[in-house]
Write a structure and sequence with these properties.
With 265 residues, the chain is an alpha/beta fold. Helix content is 36%, strand content 24%. It is built from 9 helices and 10 strands. The chain has helices spanning 47-54, 82-94, 110-122, 126-139, 155-167, 185-200, 212-218, 236-239, 246-253; strands at residues 7-18, 21-32, 36-40, 62-67, 70-73, 95-98, 173-177, 205-208, 221-226, 229-234. The strands form 2 sheets. It has a 6-stranded mixed beta sheet, with helices on both faces. A hairpin with a 2-residue loop joins β1 and β2 (21-32).
């Protein structure tokens, strides 16, 4: 792993309610430049909601979030001032997002999908946007698909295009929401291989995942969430191999197998 730098993402006291449902309960999270952080936990534990709050796809009920020096405080009264909206726009420019279901534009080619946001959102000249797209499509192994439409791609190829598209915005941090959950099992590996390479190159990433072997190989830090709180965090060898909290151990028994095939203790 690359040496870690300054804090890129800083979340403090993040709360989120959906009606009476208290989904996030005062979550704190720091992510440093070059760090790959994996969020794990049961369905409903709050990990995806936390990720969406970091990118303001969901508005936190309370707390503050800073990405690459841009801080946004929660707007519980939904006043949505111009300043607040501009701060959110600036955070989204710095935080790329890769979704479960790809979200590619079906009427555009792979290349057009990749150059659309840099040109429209950041004002990147078309020639430069194409240079970025070609470079990142090469990185994910899909340069030969540049002129294809998404309908002609496999699920794994679509997700790799989605990763290249996010990289074309040159974000300070990449966020992944269970990027392999919509894929057939035989296609999962090709996406995880790309993500693992990015992690080892020092790309700052926050990943919601159920892929425990991937977390072990690619994470600098694993964060286990339960009932909207952070229960345990640390290096993967600590959290996955020697968890300190019984709730973490119970969760991992469902996913981890020792080399002899027996459930992890």
């Amino acid at each position: 792993m690359a040496a870690l730098g300054e804090v890129v993402v800083c979340a403090r006291g993040v709360e989120k309610y959906f009606g009476d449902n208290h989904v996030l309960r005062g979550v704190d999270l720091d992510v440093r430049d070059g760090e790959t952080v994996m969020l794990i936990g049961r369905s409903g534990s709050g990990k995806t909601t936390m990720l969406r709050c970091l990118n303001f796809l969901e508005e936190p009920t309370a707390g503050s979030i800073a990405v690459a020096g841009v801080q946004v405080d929660a707007d519980p009264l939904h006043e949505r001032s111009r300043r607040h909206q501009e701060q959110i726009r600036q955070i989204r420019l710095r935080a790329g997002m890769v979704f479960q279901d790809f979200n590619l534009f079906p009427h555009m080619t792979v290349l057009e999908n990749c150059i659309e946001a840099p040109m429209r959102v950041k004002g990147v000249p078309r020639r430069r946007a194409i240079e970025l797209a070609v470079g990142f499509l090469g990185k994910v192994g899909l340069i030969e698909k540049r002129d294809e439409h998404p309908a002609r791609l496999s699920g794994g190829q679509k997700q790799r295009v989605a990763i290249a598209r996010a990289l074309c915005m040159e974000p300070k941090v990449l966020m992944f929401d269970e990027p392999t959950s919509a894929l057939d099992p035989e296609l999962v590996g090709e996406v995880l291989n790309v993500m693992e390479e990015l992690a080892h190159e020092g790309t700052t990433m926050i990943v919601v995942t159920h892929e425990m072997s991937f977390a072990r190989e690619a994470a600098d830090r694993v964060v286990f969430m339960e009932a909207g709180t952070v229960i345990e965090e640390g290096p993967p060898e600590q959290v996955l191999d020697a968890p300190q909290d019984e709730r973490t151990r119970q969760f991992l028994r469902r996913f981890l197998r020792r080399g002899d095939g027996q459930p992890a203790a």
